[in-house]
Amino acid sequence: MIFIQDKKDCCGCSACTSICGKNAISLPLDEEGFQYPLVDLSLCVDCGLCEKVCPILNVEPEVPNPAQKGYLLQLVENEIRKQSTSGGAFTAIASWVIKQGGVVFGASMDVETFEVHHQSVDTVEGLGQFRISKYVQSHVDDSYNKVRDLLKAGRWVCFSGTPCQIEGLHHYLRKKKYDKLVLVDVVCYGIPSPGVFKDYMQWKQKEIGGKFKRVLFREKILSYNYTSFSVYNEDSRKDYHLGVEREQFMRSFFSNINVRPACYDCKFKKRYRVSDFTIWDCYDVKAFSKNFDEEGTNRVLVHTELGKQILSEIRPNVKLEQFNDLDYFIADEIAMVKSVPMGPKREQFFKDYQNMQIGDLMQKWFPTTMKVRLNSLLRMTAFRFGIYNDAKRIVKRLLGKN
Ligand SMILES: Cc1cc2nc3c(=O)[nH]c(=O)nc-3n(C[C@H](O)[C@H](O)[C@H](O)COP(=O)(O)OP(=O)(O)OC[C@H]3O[C@@H](n4cnc5c(N)ncnc54)[C@H](O)[C@@H]3O)c2cc1C
Ligand code: SF4
Ligand code: SF4
Ligand code: SF4
């Protein structure tokens, strides 16, 4: 039976809870606001299935795949690309599955509770709720069971999520290769605490007033390279947009202080994966091709024959260019293969989280200092003068990130 001794040994994928036929495992939040499995011993019959499907106890070996291909991708439909985090690759793939009469699973934000849950849809319109990366861990709930039932009924299914969720599903399905299952994972930096996010948003809503109706972690208001954390209010005068360099929750995320312990030692960061597609950003698209604009591009790794077939069938809907030097293609995206380092003050941050009001916590840890304001002002100015992308590129190169 599952017993978590060290929190870094659980990514919260929920494969164990989903497989347990006795419903003996629940997933309560811990004091940091993350879900961990808890076994009810009175229900457990010690069958061992939960351990067999755990993707951390059964790490999937990385098998080099010489047939892997890499592409730059932009959705042709510009309005939907603008509503997508990067180039709209997810929508292109998911729409193909829906066209086959299939069902798509993705992460969706509930603005009543400020929780992110995996949901399923079977219409192209329904895909909108999955667009835009939510930088907070999604609850998988009973999605794996639904995926299995749909596959058994012969339906096409697309499941999108973080690499640990994809490997969790792969193990939950006992590695069975279903012909009609399409797996899409993202390159994943790490995933912040649902508990901290919920408290933060409830506090923000009280501070700002009105009622939040939409939260977008990365809206392309100014550009793809300079996105805003946006909150749309029922009273539009109270809408809230801040650059990610200034917004407190986003700053907490990028300071590596509030992500799940497993993310600091992630077992799923690799180039060769069990998914059909791995999709991620391409901020500096000009470093790869002169044929794409800078309004949002995906890099896509295709791992399987099914992936290649889908890509060839969605060609009319996407601008696509193959990139042959895959070492170069992935080199600047360190999050593909390497875990983030733990913020040195993480322990203190979460001690404070337990003892302080969330507003005071964020003011203490991420105050809006002169330095933060100045940084924000410089970015805005660079943007207004049309030199933001070039300046970003130069700073990145000076810091040796390219
Ligand atoms: C937590 C997280 C961290 C990421 N880190 C990086 C990174 O370090 N570098 C990089 O280049 N790209 C990263 N990405 C990927 C990038 O943000 C885009 O999601 C990706 O480029 C797909 O672009 P798109 O235009 O097709 O996305 P969209 O159309 O916006 O689709 C978003 C997709 O992400 C899924 N998703 C959104 N939020 C979550 C969530 N909380 N949990 C599980 N799945 C979710 C949705 O189900 C959907 O499939 C990350 C994504 C997430 C969710
Ligand atoms: S050992 Fe079997 S019954 Fe017990 S929690 Fe795990 S899956 Fe459930
Ligand atoms: S990693 Fe997934 S399967 Fe393993 S214990 Fe955690 S929630 Fe359960
Ligand atoms: S960094 Fe790894 S463990 Fe953390 S959410 Fe992403 S895939 Fe899962």
From TrEMBL:
Record's keyword terms, sorted: Iron, Iron-sulfur, Metal-binding
Domain 4Fe-4S ferredoxin-type: 1-30, 35-62
InterPro entries listed in its UniProt record: 4Fe4S_Fe-S-bd, 4Fe4S_Fe_S_CS, FrhB_FdhB_C, Polyferredoxin-like_ET
PROSITE patterns attached to this UniProt entry: 4FE4S_FER_1, 4FE4S_FER_2
Name the record gives this protein: 4Fe-4S ferredoxin-type domain-containing protein
Species annotation: Segatella bryantii (Prevotella bryantii)
